[in-house]
Recover the amino acids of this structure.
C-alpha cells in the first residue's frame, strides 16, 4: 500500500502545519511537521511513503494533480488551514472529482474549532481527520516515544529557515502541545505531552547521519520545562550532537543556567513571543506577565550568552498605534522581529482579550498589512539593523529574492 503525504498547492505561500495556518512574510519555508511525523507512523503500519510538497515546488493545481496521478497512491494524507481554506477547498474538490476512490485524510487548525461544520460545507468526501499527527492511531501519553520520522523523504533543498546559515537542516519536535493557554492560540487546547529524551536523541543521531548541520526545534516552547531542556542539552552535549539551532522560548522562563546549556549545544537564535507593546494586553491574553523593563533585562541576558534574539508580535489584539509600536520597538534589544496579523477562529474570542471586538473586523486587514510593512521597515532601518541582518542572513536574503537553491 502506498501513502502520499501531500502539502497542497496554494495561491499564496501558506504554512499550514501544527494547527497554526498563516502566510509567510517572505519566501522561507520549513518541513511540514504534521507530514514529517506522520511518515514514521505510516511506515510503521506497513505503508510505502511518497512525499509531494506542491508549495515548495511552486506547483499549480493542474501540475499537482498530474504528479499525484503519476504517483498513483492508495491513500492521501494532507493539510489544510483557516488561512488557506478557500484555496484548499477548491483544490481538494478538484482532487476528489479526479480520483474519487482515493481516501483523503486531512489535518489542520480549522478542524479544531468547527470540524463537523467544515466537513459538511467544504469536505463532505473526507475519509477522516488527523486530530493528532504525533499519535494518529493511539492516544498520546506523557514521556512518549514514536517511530522514527522519515527525514530522508520529507526533504527538499529549497527548504530554508531564517536565522540558520544553511539549508542542510532538519525540523524536530521534542514535545507535543503546550502547557500554557494563551487566549489567541489553539495549541494549548491540545494539552502538553513530553517526548522521551532518549527518543529525541535517537532522532538527532539519525539526522546527523543524514548530514544535517542545523536544527529548527519546532516545539511551541522549547523551554516549556526548563529543567527538562537543560537535561536534553546535557545529553546532546554528552553524545556530541552539536547543531546550529533555533528555537522558540519564553522570556519568563529563561535563566543563566538554561542559556548556558543552550549555547553549549549550538543554539544561535531564540524566538520570543512578546506579542504586544501594551502590558495590560500581555497580561490579559495570558501570554507574558512581565513589565517592559523586565522584558528588556531578560533580552539583554540572552544576548550576553551570544544568542541572537527575535521577537514575534501580533497586530490586531490591541490598539495598534504606529507611534506606540515605534516607541516600544526602540527600547527592545532585539536582532529580528516578526509581525503576524491575528487570524480570527471561531472558538477564540479576541474581544475578550482587548475588550473591543471591532479591532478584529475584516475591514481592518488592509490597514494591519500596511502597519506590518511600516513597522518592519522602521525596525530594520533604525540604527542600521538592516546591515546586521544582511551580514548574518546573506544566504537567506539571496534565496528570498529568488536565487536558485542549487547554487547556494
Amino acid at each position: 500500500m502506498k501513502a502520499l503525504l501531500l502539502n497542497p498547492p496554494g495561491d499564496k505561500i501558506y504554512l499550514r502545519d501544527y494547527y497554526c495556518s498563516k502566510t509567510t512574510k517572505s519566501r522561507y519555508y520549513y518541513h511540514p511537521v504534521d507530514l514529517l511525523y506522520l511518515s514514521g507512523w505510516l511506515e510503521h503500519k506497513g505503508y510505502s511513503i511518497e512525499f509531494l510538497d506542491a508549495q515548495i515546488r511552486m506547483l499549480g493545481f493542474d501540475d499537482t494533480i498530474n504528479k499525484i496521478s503519476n504517483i498513483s497512491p492508495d491513500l492521501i494524507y494532507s493539510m489544510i488551514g483557516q488561512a488557506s481554506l478557500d484555496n484548499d477547498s477548491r483544490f481538494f474538490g478538484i482532487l476528489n472529482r479526479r480520483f474519487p476512490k482515493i481516501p483523503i485524510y486531512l489535518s489542520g487548525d480549522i478542524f479544531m474549532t468547527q470540524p463537523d461544520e467544515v466537513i459538511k460545507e467544504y469536505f463532505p468526501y473526507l475519509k477522516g481527520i488527523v486530530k493528532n499527527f504525533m499519535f494518529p492511531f493511539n492516544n498520546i501519553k506523557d514521556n512518549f516515544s514514536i517511530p522514527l520520522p522519515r527525514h530522508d523523504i520529507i526533504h527538499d533543498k529549497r527548504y530554508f529557515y531564517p536565522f540558520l546559515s544553511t539549508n542542510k537542516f532538519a525540523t524536530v519536535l521534542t514535545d507535543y502541545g503546550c502547557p500554557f493557554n494563551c487566549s489567541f492560540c489553539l495549541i494549548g487546547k491540545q494539552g502538553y505531552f513530553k517526548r522521551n529524551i532518549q527518543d529525541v536523541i535517537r532522532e538527532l543521531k539519525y539526522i546527523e547521519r543524514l548530514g544535517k548541520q542545523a536544527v529548527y526545534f519546532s516545539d511551541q516552547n522549547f523551554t516549556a520545562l526548563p529543567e527538562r531542556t537543560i537535561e536534553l542539552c546535557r545529553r546532546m552535549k554528552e553524545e556530541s550532537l552539536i547543531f546550529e539551532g533555533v528555537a522558540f522560548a519564553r522570556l519568563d522562563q529563561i535563566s543563566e543556567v538554561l542559556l548556558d546549556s543552550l549555547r553549549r549545544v549550538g543554539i544561535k537564535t531564540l524566538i520570543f513571543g512578546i506579542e504586544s507593546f501594551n502590558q495590560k494586553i500581555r497580561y490579559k491574553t495570558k501570554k507574558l506577565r512581565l513589565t517592559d523593563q523586565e522584558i528588556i533585562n531578560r533580552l539583554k541576558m540572552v544576548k550576553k550568552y551570544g544568542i541572537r534574539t527575535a521577537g514575534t508580535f501580533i497586530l490586531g489584539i490591541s490598539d495598534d498605534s504606529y507611534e506606540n509600536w515605534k516607541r516600544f520597538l526602540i527600547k527592545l534589544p532585539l536582532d529580528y522581529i516578526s509581525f503576524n496579523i491575528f487570524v480570527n477562529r471561531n472558538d477564540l474570542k479576541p474581544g475578550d482579550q482587548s475588550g473591543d471586538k471591532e479591532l478584529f473586523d475584516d475591514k481592518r486587514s488592509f490597514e494591519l498589512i500596511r502597519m506590518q510593512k511600516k513597522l518592519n521597515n522602521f525596525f530594520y532601518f533604525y540604527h542600521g539593523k538592516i546591515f546586521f541582518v544582511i551580514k548574518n542572513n546573506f544566504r537567506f536574503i539571496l534565496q528570498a529574492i529568488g536565487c536558485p537553491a542549487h547554487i547556494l
